[in-house]
Design brief:
There is one protein chain. The protein has helices at residues 17-36, 63-69, 75-90, 95-114, 119-140, 148-164, 172-185, 257-279, 294-302, 313-323, 376-399, 408-423, 428-449, 454-466, 484-487, 493-511; strands at residues 13-16, 46-49, 57-60, 142-143, 195-201, 209-212, 214-216, 227-236, 285-288, 306-308, 327-328, 340-350, 353-361, 367-373, 401-404, 472-475, 480-483, 490-492, 515-518. It has 16 helices and 19 strands. It has 3 domains: 13-143 and 406-518, Orthogonal Bundle (GROEL, domain 1); 146-213 and 364-399, 2-Layer Sandwich (GROEL, domain 2); 224-362, GroEL, CATH 3.50.7.10. The strands form 6 sheets. Strands 7, 8, 9, 10, 11, 12 and 13 form a 7-stranded mixed β-sheet that branches. A hairpin with a 7-residue loop joins strand 2 and strand 3.
């Protein structure tokens, strides 16, 4: 016997053909199974424990968050994690749906490959299926943007649908309203920078509210005015400690104590000049990203200027945007600096904490959502839920189109795809049928998660859709099939489209794999490696 030729490095692994495909399928399907129980209004949450001491516990049912937090070694699994990330960045919600759909497609593909269908044939069939599904979805999409009232109702319903599967489900009318108000203030922009979310422990969820204007979680300096109207604000990022020598930290050799006092005086003089320069900008509020030490603080107080220190970077960036000013770090040319404006700055109390409220800010769309809750985990999950809703809503204010939720859109697409399968000759038809089955799996999983009889419900739903009653979907409160328009279960068209595209692309990519090569691990005791 000859020993086989070694091409790969020692310890590198290779999986070929069937085994490679199998391990991709198994990995992807395992991940789909892991998060499919979080899908839908009756979905369950997961607890993620991490070794990070900052937040050891996360309780969530946000697909992207779950997938981001679990360490995955399977390459196909990683692809699914990536599509859920993309879904999160593009649309903000639907992260679970996209992963589950991709996983169901692969489950179907596994069966087909076992029946000796070539992966390329399956992919060709799927491509046709995606086109048809996309057309069906686009035809079914509604657009009420012409009618203000109706559009607001649509947005409200979309928010309700998005939040129905999240932790804020009990008070979701209130939260849906919050989100719609916040997004409508943006007037069609999709930049969520102007909406700030502040989390404050205490109270309960229903104490959350929307604060028009901007809240900064900081304190006002000592002995300074606590309330200023017609504020002219300078937002700065500069060191307000004395510039050259830190007298008390350094070793200074001097002839006598008198000399130390001289050095200190010189330092104080420098500081005084700097504050003088800042005051020349005709401002009455000075907000700095860094600390402001006692002496300059006292100088500001003497001139009746409110000074706020240590507003962290995120706060500063957002503040400058909202007040319409710029972040300043040199003070030589007062005439070139854009100073921010707002009508009123005052201290308010939320729970135990004092915050600074900026009312009547230059950027009218700015607002702050204040969340209250019993534990940090609840607050974090509320923030994730609202973030999802805000993203979806802002996408919808851009594209205006809405489709029906509750498994209705999926069934509609599955129906269209099935009709295509009947008309297609050849082996591709089998693949197209499989695609329709995978789409129909989403309503099945939603029903299963609520503990209803999914086989019964989904076959009813399929019958309705085949008869052309294309607004029927699952009513998860009753466990029946109902009319989604009456129930107001509406989702963003952009979201559904993205789910369809991403999931099929990812599944196709995993299906194309026939060889997995893992590089050899690097040896630890390399002489060249220190």
């Amino acid at each position: 016997m000859f020993s086989p030729v070694q091409i790969l490095k020692q310890n590198a692994e290779e999986e070929k053909g069937e085994t490679a495909r199998l391990s991709s399928f198994v990995g992807a399907i395992a991940i789909g199974d892991l998060i499919k129980s979080t899908l839908g209004p009756k979905g369950m949450d997961k607890i993620l424990q991490s070794t990070n001491p900052m937040n050891p516990l996360t309780v969530t049912n946000d697909g992207a968050t779950i997938l981001r937090s679990i360490g995955i070694d399977n390459p196909a699994g990683k692809i699914l994690v990536d599509i859920s990330k993309v879904q999160d960045d593009e649309v903000g919600d639907g992260t679970t749906s996209v992963t589950v759909l991709a996983c169901e497609l692969l489950r179907e593909a596994e069966q087909l490959v076992a029946q000796k269908l070539h992966p390329q044939t399956i992919i060709a069939g799927w491509r046709k299926a995606v086109e048809v599904a996309d057309q069906a979805l686009t035809q079914a999409a509604m657009d009420n943007s012409a009618d203000k009232e109706k559009f607001r109702k649509d947005l409200f319903n979309i928010a309700m649908t998005t939040l129905s599967s999240k932790i804020v489900q009990q008070g979701r009318e209130m939260f849906a309203d919050l989100c719609v108000d916040a997004v409508l203030r943006l007037k069609g922009k999709t930049d969520l920078q102007a909406i700030q979310i502040i989390k404050k422990l205490g109270g309960n969820m229903s104490d959350s509210y929307l604060e028009p204007g901007f809240l900064l979680d900081k304190k006002i300096g000592v002995n300074q005015p606590k309330r200023i109207e017609n504020a002219r604000v300078m937002v700065a990022n500069t060191a307000m400690d004395t510039d050259k020598i830190k007298v008390f930290g350094s070793r200074v050799r001097v002839d006598g104590m008198g000399k130390v006092a001289e050095i200190e005086l010189a330092e104080k003089e420098k500081m005084k000049q700097k504050v003088g320069k800042i005051l020349k900008h005709d401002i009455n509020v000075f907000i700095n990203r860094q600390l402001i030490y006692n002496y300059p603080e006292q100088l500001f107080a003497d001139s009746g200027v409110m000074a706020i220190e240590h507003a962290d970077f995120d706060g500063i960036e957002r503040l400058a945007l909202v007040l319409g000013g710029e972040i300043v770090s040199t003070f030589e040319h007062p005439e070139m600096v854009k100073v921010g404006h707002c009508d009123l700055i005052e201290e308010i109390m939320i729970g135990e904490d004092k915050l600074i409220r900026f009312g009547g800010v230059a950027l009218g769309e700015a607002c702050t959502i204040v969340l209250r809750g019993a534990t940090q985990q609840i607050l974090d999950e509320m923030e994730r839920s609202l973030h999802d809703a805000l993203c979806v809503l802002s996408q919808t204010t851009k594209t205006y189109k809405t489709v029906l939720g509750g498994g209705c859109s999926e069934m509609l697409m599955a129906n269209a795809v099935n009709q295509l399968a009947v008309q297609t000759p050849g082996k591709e038809a089998v693949a197209i049928e499989a695609f329709a089955r995978a789409l129909a799996k989403l309503p099945t999983i939603i029903a299963d998660n609520a503990g209803y009889d999914s086989a019964q419900l989904v076959s009813q739903l399929r019958a309705y859709h085949t008869q052309g009653k294309s607004t029927m979907g699952l009513n998860m409160n009753e466990g029946t099939v109902g009319d989604m328009i009456e129930l107001g279960i509406i989702e963003s068209y952009q979201l559904k489209k993205q789910v369809l595209q991403s999931a099929s692309e990812a599944a196709e990519m995993i299906l194309r794999v026939d060889d997995i090569i893992k590089a050899a691990p690097r040896q630890r005791n390399d002489p060249g490696h220190h």
